[in-house]
UniProtKB/TrEMBL annotation:
This is Uncharacterized protein. It comes from Paenibacillus beijingensis.
């Protein structure tokens, strides 16, 4: 028996899963990582707190993996509620603008809370 319902409604806050993959990171020295890349990465991620987004959770796959992302295509996932599409675009662009796209790849997946697990009246 099919459940009848209308088209999904776009929520006031978009649910965004950002897939984070290390790419050029593996071709850098420890000094580059600690003195240049990680401080810049921390600055960008900290800056996301000021754009109206709310971090819901993260997942790092490093418990059972090491090295390149492989077929999954990501090393970690960040889950946010984001106010609008432009903010998502600004978040991904922040990696380009700072040169972090040389070391990492981001991909945003848009959606909404799953209706059976989260009520969004």
């Amino acid at each position: 028996m099919a459940i009848e319902h209308g088209a999904p409604q776009i929520p006031p806050m978009l649910r965004v899963m950002i897939q984070f993959e290390s790419t050029g990171w593996f071709d850098t020295t420890g000094e580059e990582k600690t003195q240049h890349i990680l401080p810049k990465l921390n600055e960008v991620l900290t800056g996301w707190k000021d754009n109206g987004s709310k971090l819901i959770g993260t997942l790092d796959r490093d418990i059972l993996t090491a090295g390149h992302a492989g077929s999954a295509g990501y090393h970690a996932v960040f889950l946010y509620d984001v106010p609008d599409l432009q903010t998502v675009t600004n978040m991904t662009h922040s990696f380009r603008a700072t040169g972090l796209d040389r070391y990492f790849r981001l991909e945003a997946v848009l959606g909404r809370p799953f209706f059976l697990l989260e009520k969004t009246d």
